[in-house]
Write a structure and sequence with these properties.
The strands form 3 sheets. A 4-stranded mixed beta sheet has the order 6-3-8-7, sandwiched between helices. A 3-stranded antiparallel beta sheet has the order 5-4-9. It has 5 helices and 9 strands. It has about 200 residues and is an alpha+beta fold.
Length: about 200
């Protein structure tokens, strides 16, 4: 499968949403809850600072399938704060300060898929992602069925397609995947094998 080149990638601007002054909101300024090893809130920090200092925060991962059971796969834009231009089989992102995992999962899925009226994603499990190099976050994994036509945000998604599970498996060795998404995917397969 060849990957289409998107001109939108070269024109993507971080933060397409408007702030209180009408200008773009810098994703690095988004306020996050900082949590401990037991997922208890211990403070708050701007996203950029949390990433720079390796502060533990919260994220959601949503596996989106279409009516045929295919998985939404995408390549991140080069403007993303972490893991730019890598592939991911999940949509999702950080949980905002004071936001629940469930609310963040629905918000992130609708934002990244570019849809409205998505069913609430079903929670599957949580795990602590830690790459041993200062990147660590509590990760809540979800699944959702998306029968709506998708229109992903150009500032988030450079390329996308719904791929059959076996195609995703074949591409695991060929494409460079986001490490936290890959960890979540492997845990999801183990979860299903034991469930």
């Amino acid at each position: 499968m060849s990957e289409p080149v998107s001109e939108a990638v070269t024109e993507a601007v971080s933060g397409a949403t408007s702030g209180p002054t009408g200008g773009p909101v810098d994703p690095a300024d988004e306020l996050l809850d900082i949590v401990d090893e037991n997922d208890r809130v211990v403070g708050q920090s701007a996203r950029g600072e949390a990433y720079a200092r390796g502060l533990r925060h919260r994220c959601v991962f949503i596996l989106a399938r279409d009516g045929e059971g295919r998985i939404f796969v995408h390549r991140r834009t080069p403007t993303k704060l972490v893991f730019p231009s890598l592939y991911d089989m999940f949509v999702g992102g950080v949980v905002g300060a004071g936001e629940t995992y469930d609310d963040a999962a629905l918000r992130e899925a609708e934002e990244e898929l570019g849809v409205c009226g998505l069913p609430r994603p079903a929670p599957l499990f949580k795990f602590l992602y830690d790459n041993g190099a200062g990147q660590t976050w509590w990760s809540s994994v979800y699944e959702v069925r998306c029968d709506l036509p998708v229109s992903p945000q150009v500032e988030e998604v450079a390329w996308h397609d719904f791929l059959p599970q076996d195609e995703v498996e074949r591409r695991l060795a060929d494409w460079e995947w986001v490490p936290d998404g890959l960890a979540a995917y492997e845990r999801l397969k183990a979860h299903r094998a034991t469930g």
